[in-house]
Amino acid sequence: MPRQSLSQLETAHLKCRSWAHAWDYEVSYVERVGNSRILELHLHCERCDGYRIDTFDRPSQPRLISRKYVYPEGYVVVDLKRWGGRRHFNQSVQGELFSRFTPSKRKEKRAS
Ligand SMILES: [Zn+2]
Fold first, then answer.
1. Contact (Cβ atoms closer than 8 angstroms) between residue 40 and residue 28
2. Where are the domains of the chain?
3. What distance, in Å, lies between the first and last C-alpha atoms of the chain?
4. In angstroms, what is the span from residue 106 Cα to ligand 1's centroid?
5. SS3 of 57, please?
Protein backbone atom coordinates (compact mmCIF):
# COMPACT_ATOMS: atom_id res chain seq x y z
CA MET A 1 0.00 0.00 0.00
CA PRO A 2 1.30 3.48 -0.83
CA ARG A 3 2.08 5.71 2.09
CA GLN A 4 0.16 8.50 0.38
CA SER A 5 -3.32 7.96 -0.99
CA LEU A 6 -5.11 9.69 -3.85
CA SER A 7 -7.70 11.12 -1.49
CA GLN A 8 -4.88 12.96 0.32
CA LEU A 9 -3.66 14.74 -2.81
CA GLU A 10 -4.84 18.32 -3.24
CA THR A 11 -7.35 19.00 -6.01
CA ALA A 12 -5.02 21.66 -7.47
CA HIS A 13 -2.25 19.07 -7.73
CA LEU A 14 -4.58 16.59 -9.44
CA LYS A 15 -5.63 19.28 -11.95
CA CYS A 16 -2.01 20.12 -12.79
CA ARG A 17 -1.14 16.45 -13.17
CA SER A 18 -4.15 15.84 -15.43
CA TRP A 19 -4.35 19.08 -17.41
CA ALA A 20 -0.80 20.51 -17.16
CA HIS A 21 0.36 23.44 -15.10
CA ALA A 22 -1.11 26.93 -15.42
CA TRP A 23 2.20 28.70 -16.01
CA ASP A 24 2.59 32.42 -15.97
CA TYR A 25 5.69 34.55 -16.24
CA GLU A 26 7.12 35.69 -12.93
CA VAL A 27 10.62 37.09 -13.42
CA SER A 28 13.75 36.67 -15.52
CA TYR A 29 17.45 37.21 -14.94
CA VAL A 30 20.33 37.75 -17.32
CA GLU A 31 23.64 36.58 -15.93
CA ARG A 32 27.11 36.77 -17.32
CA VAL A 33 28.88 33.42 -17.54
CA GLY A 34 32.44 33.90 -18.75
CA ASN A 35 32.26 35.81 -22.04
CA SER A 36 28.60 35.04 -22.68
CA ARG A 37 25.29 35.73 -21.02
CA ILE A 38 22.50 33.35 -20.06
CA LEU A 39 18.83 34.09 -19.53
CA GLU A 40 16.98 32.46 -16.66
CA LEU A 41 13.19 32.58 -16.99
CA HIS A 42 11.04 31.81 -13.95
CA LEU A 43 7.48 30.62 -14.50
CA HIS A 44 5.00 30.17 -11.68
CA CYS A 45 2.00 27.84 -11.69
CA GLU A 46 -0.98 29.87 -10.58
CA ARG A 47 -2.84 26.74 -9.55
CA CYS A 48 -0.42 24.57 -7.56
CA ASP A 49 2.25 27.16 -6.69
CA GLY A 50 5.03 25.22 -8.43
CA TYR A 51 7.88 26.79 -10.39
CA ARG A 52 9.62 26.05 -13.67
CA ILE A 53 13.00 27.60 -14.29
CA ASP A 54 14.18 27.60 -17.89
CA THR A 55 17.74 28.61 -18.73
CA PHE A 56 18.64 29.84 -22.21
CA ASP A 57 22.14 30.14 -23.59
CA ARG A 58 21.78 33.70 -24.87
CA PRO A 59 19.09 36.30 -24.35
CA SER A 60 18.94 37.48 -27.99
CA GLN A 61 18.25 34.17 -29.78
CA PRO A 62 17.28 31.94 -26.87
CA ARG A 63 18.03 28.22 -26.99
CA LEU A 64 16.87 26.18 -24.01
CA ILE A 65 19.81 24.58 -22.22
CA SER A 66 18.17 23.44 -18.98
CA ARG A 67 14.78 23.15 -17.32
CA LYS A 68 14.18 22.69 -13.61
CA TYR A 69 10.94 22.20 -11.69
CA VAL A 70 10.33 23.14 -8.08
CA TYR A 71 7.18 21.52 -6.74
CA PRO A 72 5.08 22.58 -3.78
CA GLU A 73 4.91 20.45 -0.65
CA GLY A 74 2.73 17.38 -1.12
CA TYR A 75 2.95 17.43 -4.92
CA VAL A 76 5.72 14.91 -5.38
CA VAL A 77 4.62 11.30 -5.03
CA VAL A 78 7.14 9.04 -3.39
CA ASP A 79 7.97 5.73 -5.09
CA LEU A 80 5.78 5.55 -8.20
CA LYS A 81 6.34 1.77 -8.38
CA ARG A 82 4.19 1.41 -5.28
CA TRP A 83 1.37 3.11 -7.20
CA GLY A 84 1.68 0.63 -10.10
CA GLY A 85 3.96 2.78 -12.27
CA ARG A 86 3.47 6.14 -13.95
CA ARG A 87 0.76 5.08 -16.42
CA HIS A 88 -1.38 3.48 -13.73
CA PHE A 89 -0.78 6.41 -11.40
CA ASN A 90 -1.81 8.95 -14.07
CA GLN A 91 -5.01 7.01 -14.76
CA SER A 92 -5.74 6.84 -11.06
CA VAL A 93 -5.16 10.59 -10.70
CA GLN A 94 -7.63 11.31 -13.50
CA GLY A 95 -10.19 8.95 -11.93
CA GLU A 96 -9.80 10.66 -8.56
CA LEU A 97 -10.18 14.10 -10.15
CA PHE A 98 -13.33 13.06 -12.02
CA SER A 99 -14.80 11.54 -8.88
CA ARG A 100 -14.36 14.88 -7.09
CA PHE A 101 -16.24 16.67 -9.88
CA THR A 102 -18.95 14.07 -10.35
CA PRO A 103 -22.00 14.64 -8.21
CA SER A 104 -22.92 11.79 -5.93
CA LYS A 105 -25.98 9.76 -6.89
CA ARG A 106 -28.00 11.45 -4.16
CA LYS A 107 -27.35 14.88 -5.69
CA GLU A 108 -27.89 13.89 -9.32
CA LYS A 109 -30.71 15.61 -11.11
CA ARG A 110 -33.39 13.33 -12.37
CA ALA A 111 -34.02 13.39 -16.10
CA SER A 112 -37.73 13.48 -16.65
ZN1 LIG B 1 0.63 23.47 -11.26
1. yes
2. 11-101
3. 43
4. 32
5. coil
